[in-house]
Amino acid sequence: MSDFFAIVLSGSAHRVDRWGRRSLSCLASSSPAGASFEAALTGTATFDAGGTLVTCGVSVSAPGDGNNLVPEAPDNHNPDGAVSGAINAPTFEDCDTNMPLVNATVTVNDPVWEMSMLAGEPSTGSMTVPAGGIVVTTSGLASCTATVSPDADVAIAGTWTNGDPASTLAFDTTAPVVVEGGLGCPDTDEAGFTATYEVTNADDPSAPITVTG
């Protein structure tokens, strides 16, 4: 594995810092030049559809099936923009609502998403949700179905912060949504999403995944 991996912002190269030891860029292949990474929720993930909140306590994107991998050179360097690759879609479990006697489940319909990383101030990470890729369903006193961007893929962008041993990817964004149901269901075409993920090196947790200029 080489000492540095490069990603770019506005045409200039940015490198993944070794921090004095082996370091990884953000996406990759299963070759010896790369390693796998995991993104695990810290705190809670919240979907906000018109004031109706669905909060989940567990969300993980784990490596497997050739996804969540650091790229080999030269694929980790893109002089024309972000570095992208496939990740396993995050799960959403242990979900609840802010409405009495209303339960919630979050279903991920497409098992593979795309993630893009771009170095800058701040650095950013974007997860592309396939069309209709997330469906939030409530039951009980309010039976509703909210489908995220049912007609087109949508990218949700977060802020990347280097850390040791875990870097973080924090989301505070919105996405288009279609809500179906009757009494008690929100009347909105947009849903908010807030969550912070800790990103760690699944092969060597002591070697942080970092993005630097």
Rounded to an integer, what's the Rg over CA atoms?
18 Å
Largest sheet: 14 strands, antiparallel
Low-pLDDT regions: 1-33
Total beta-strand segments: 16
Number of helices: 0
What percent of residues adopt helix (DSSP H or I)? under 10%
Spatial separation of the terminal alpha carbons: 19 Å
Determine the mean pLDDT.
82
- Structural shape: elongated
Strand content: over 45%
* Element pattern in H and E: EEEEEEEEEEEEEEEE
Protein structure class: mainly beta
Summed up, what is this model?
The chain has no helices and 16 strands. By secondary structure, it is an all-beta fold.
Task: Record keyword descriptors for this entry.
single chain, 213 residues, mainly beta, 14-stranded antiparallel beta sheet, two-stranded antiparallel ribbon, 16 strands, 0% helix, elongated, disordered N terminus
Describe how the helices and strands are arranged:
Elements (H helix, E strand, L loop, with lengths): L4 E5 L2 E5 L20 E5 L3 E5 L2 E7 L1 E2 L21 E6 L4 E5 L4 E7 L3 E7 L4 E7 L4 E7 L3 E5 L5 E8 L5 E15 L8 E12 L12
Antiparallel strand pairs: 1-2, 3-6, 3-16, 4-5, 4-16, 5-8, 7-10, 9-12, 10-11, 11-14, 12-13, 13-15, 14-15, 15-16
